[in-house]
Amino acid sequence: MTVIERFLKYVTFDTQSDESTGVTPSTPKQMVFAKYLKTELEELGLEEITLDENGYLFATLPANVDREIPVVGFIAHMDTSPDASGTNVKPRIVKDYDGGDIVLCKDDDIILSPRQFPELLDHTGEDLIVTDGHTLLGADDKAGVAEIIAAVAYLKEHPEIEHGKIRIGFNPDEEIGMGAKKFDVKAFGCKWAYTMDGSEVGELEFENFNAAAAKVTVRGRNVHPGYAKNKMINSLLVAHELVGLLPADETPATTEGYEGFFHLTGMDGDVEHTELSFIIRDHDRQKFEARKRFLQVCADQLNERYGANVVKVDLHDQYYNMREQVEPLMHIIDLAFGAMKEAGVEPKVRAIRGGTDGAQLSFKGLPCPNIFAGGLNFHGRYEFVPIPSIWKAMMVIVKIAELTARRY
């Protein structure tokens, strides 16, 4: 089975995660996919295959040389985003893309166009896998799953390629920020690993946002509007004031690169009670801490105006910039860089404007940079993946295994 055949099979599994359930995996359908993958790994003849009750699937490709070589891991997540439907995914291959519009669904006038998605033009002449316009595709991260399994199969079929022990791991719930929570780093048993969870060809990432979530509660005072002067506190308006105190040019829609932001993700309320949800992001740890303090300063300012405890801020950190953990071990970046070169891929070292399981795993003692999986426009109906990108990602995995053995 080729890497493309694997991918086309995997996306037919509905594996959306759900942050509301409070269990791991967050949806039982993820375990269905994990059990299917476990059977595949057994048929491939891998060893030390384990699938725990939380949906974490580990396996080993044994070394084919006698000398001591560091154990390297490759990781991908099995879930897809709750942002768009993952039910009844119908992938389609567009042959030799000509640079024009791609009609995903004629009846509903759903079109994937380079006018909205200019990155399409980087893949003119390539075969593309697209959706039917009614679901996401699932390349995030079933492309990564397919690439890892196909690379392991390739190494088994080519015993002339020397490699050390390779560990592979597939986890649930990355899309809801819980993928690394119950990942048993000790049992995985690697010196370092790579998540195959990036996007465009060549991406190599070992920096990500520091991240926090904030829940802001505004307590109002409701009074009959005819007699409300100097008595009513409209929590909706106070919430609006709070948002207005935050920098208007520091949102996801106005920032890029290393620029951080405040992101209002939800607001619900009435005169008496309003709740706001924010995420706070910055690559720089000091700026990150300053952003959290600033949100509290804004709340304090409103409390001075309207009374104590009108505005309450509950903050918690989600993950940190993995660069702190990876930078002392830059040889693992050098290995990935060299593997891309040997696979005919031009490396593009970038900072992630988000987070990956690798960030949390790095702080759990498993340094874990992120490598491209090849898909684009994740989490929606316009997601697509160029077929050459999947092949290249698979070969980067093979080359990392080969280079590690060559250098030790």
Would you kindly provide a brief summary of this structure?
31% of the residues lie in helices and 24% in strands. By secondary structure, the protein is of the alpha+beta class. The strands form four sheets. Strands 1-2-8-3-9-16-10-15 form an eight-stranded mixed β-sheet, sandwiched between helices. Strands 12-13-11-14 form a four-stranded antiparallel β-sheet.
Produce the secondary structure layout.
Blueprint: H1 3-10, H2 28-44, E1 47-51, E2 57-61, E3 72-77, E4 92-94, E5 102-105, E6 110-112, E7 128-130, H3 139-157, E8 166-171, H4 185-188, E9 192-198, E10 203-208, E11 210-219, H5 235-245, E12 261-269, E13 273-282, H6 285-306, E14 311-319, H7 323-326, H8 331-342, E15 348-352, H9 357-363, E16 370-372, E17 384-386, H10 387-407
Parallel strand pairs: 3-8, 3-9, 9-16, 10-15
Antiparallel strand pairs: 1-2, 2-8, 4-7, 5-6, 7-17, 10-16, 11-13, 11-14, 12-13
Tell me what the structure shows:
This protein is an alpha+beta fold. Helix content is 31%, strand content 24%. The strands form four sheets. An eight-stranded mixed sheet has the order 1-2-8-3-9-16-10-15, with helices on both faces. Helix 1 (3-10) packs antiparallel against helix 3, helix 3 (139-157) crosses helix 10 and helix 8 (331-342) packs across helix 10. The longest helix is centred in the last third of the chain and has 22 residues, at 285-306. The chain starts with a helix and ends with a helix. The mean pLDDT is 96.
